[in-house]
Design brief:
GO terms for molecular function: DNA binding. This is Helix-turn-helix transcriptional regulator. Keywords: DNA-binding, Transcription, Transcription regulation. Pfam families: HxlR (PF01638). By secondary structure, this protein is α+β, with helices and mostly antiparallel strands. It has a domain of 180 residues: Arc Repressor Mutant, subunit A (Orthogonal Bundle), CATH 1.10.10.10. It contains 13 helices and twelve strands. The strands form five sheets. Strands 4-3-12 form a three-stranded antiparallel β-sheet, with no helix packed on it. A hairpin with a 7-residue loop joins β1 and β2. It is globular and about 70 Å long. 26% of the residues are buried.
Length: 291
């Protein structure tokens, strides 16, 4: 999706910049087409090559993609050998002439949305009610590749590990709504114990969860969201909003309450500087300076 928003449309362009096998890329593109996010068309009347372009539904992912992009710049640039300059792009908002910092806000009160300011209504206390709303995203999850070409972009690798894997995403959402212990995750998600252990260890290793011992014998730990983990909340909520906005009238989503204003949570992503919602045409992707 990142490459589609950058204007790449050809199979070889995607493969060169993402650095994955032809078979894996084919599966991902087919999944995006099946979900109505991309469509495939001939490159020209005389060409045998095809282009993959965003549908209206796919274009709706732009807001959450901006948040994901910024999250990588905020949290992951320094982790790659301290090289923010190695990241290929920065964001610029043409409408206000400023560097773009995307901010998730409540549509009603326009305040920033944070994990501590959102709660489930009493009739929907189970986190599972929220997991179902983004189930369609699981089919678009990242397929891991064992090999890299060396030419792939560095952006969004970390974010795809975190929200592109089904179980990792479900653990994050469960943590957003109050789960913190191994047994709670195991029961709520009906997840195999070996998968749960592996995902929890991964989330601790990448500093999204913090492991805190609450019992020595036998050893028991809480898994708490770190500041880095909490900062993923607006991205996941923006993706949830994308799913909700695509629902037809016969379906409805479980409500979330924005405690800052008491309204049902609906998300917009705006420019922090001018408070306008950035359109794709108004966002410029600037190559980072090289040493």
């Amino acid at each position: 999706m990142r490459d589609a928003f950058l204007g790449r449309t050809r199979f070889e362009q995607f493969r060169r910049h993402i650095g994955i096998s032809k078979a894996t890329l084919t599966r991902r593109l087919d999944a995006l087409i099946n979900e109505g996010v991309l469509y495939k068309q001939p490159g020209s009347a005389s060409s045998t090559r095809f282009e993959y372009r965003l549908t209206e539904k796919g274009a709706g992912l732009f807001s959450s993609s901006l948040l994901a992009w910024q999250w990588e710049l905020d949290w992951c640039a320094a982790e790659r050998d301290g090289a923010k300059s190695r990241l290929p792009y920065e964001l610029f908002h043409r409408r206000c002439g400023q560097e773009l910092y995307p901010l998730a806000v409540c549509r009603h009160c326009r305040r920033p949305v944070q994990v501590d300011d959102v709660e489930l209504p009493e009739q929907a206390l189970s986190p599972q009610s929220q997991l179902d709303e983004i189930r369609s995203l699981n089919r678009l999850r990242r397929v891991r590749s064992a090999t890299k070409s060396g030419t792939e972009d560095l952006m969004l690798a970390n974010i795809s590990d975190l929200i592109g894997d089904r179980w990792t995403l479900l653990l994050l959402i469960s943590a957003f709504f109050g789960l913190r212990r191994y047994d709670q995750f195991l029961k709520q998600l009906s997840i195999a114990s070996n998968i749960l252990t592996a995902r929890l260890n991964f989330l601790v290793d990448v500093e999204v969860f913090e492991r805190r011992t609450y019992q020595e014998n036998p050893p028991r730990s809480d898994y708490l969201l770190s500041a880095k983990g909490k900062s993923l909340f607006p991205i996941v909520m923006a993706m949830r909003q994308w799913v909700i906005d695509d629902l037809d009238a016969s379906h409805s989503a479980t409500e979330l309450i924005h405690t800052a204003c008491g309204k049902n949570l609906e998300i917009d992503v705006q420019c922090e500087k001018c408070c306008e919602i950035p359109a794709r045409a108004d966002v410029q992707f600037i190559e980072a300076d090289t040493p």
